[in-house]
Here is the input.
Amino acid sequence: SILAFEELPRTRRELLDLVKWKMKKAVPFKVEDASVDYQVMPATGIDGEPAKGYSILAVLMPQAVVEEHESVFTRQGIHAGLVELSSFSLMHLYRTVIAKDVPEGDYMLLNATPAFFTVMIHRNGQPLFYRCKSFSLTGDGGADAAARLLRREIQASVLYYQERLHGKSLARVYMRLVGHDSEQAQLAFDRAPLGARPEMIDVGRVLAVSGRMAALDPQRRADALQRLAPAVGAAWGRTS
Here is the structure.
């Protein structure tokens, strides 16, 4: 969630407690049992200009879920140095591409798999909107039901962008899709205010693809890179 603060507490512990208090009714689990982290950013207005106060990008995850992921490594004697959401890893991966494509203005990142759907909208480099829902997009009805659900979620997010965030135009829409048809996803943006056609995130725009991955046929390579993109972004963000 993106939280607004007029002033910040003096210590990290006080800020963590305040984030938990603000998110208490917004998460489907006890905040007392959550792992919490945050990033402090300068506040911006709807017009993208600097504003008074601060914006906090807060992330909460049940501690039991974190421990479940970490245990895979700790059993092998490996310390897990980073637990990150895949959408943020995609931002790390594509930050140089985005800086070139959208030096100013609005852009959207869409990250959809059979298990969740995430939309992030940035304005002038600052996060403006974040929405994430966990559910099965490939339940009863198969591919058609998944396409309808994804289309509905995209259209709802675009409508919110236009009506509540005073969005005029999305200069770019970057998509990472696993288990979804890219053409069907693009159709959901037909009436959206776009500066360019939605495009798939391409690892090849950041790193050279070589070895066994390069030897795959184009479709298999594209599918594999969509699945691997967040992991590549996590590693790239730590080294670049």
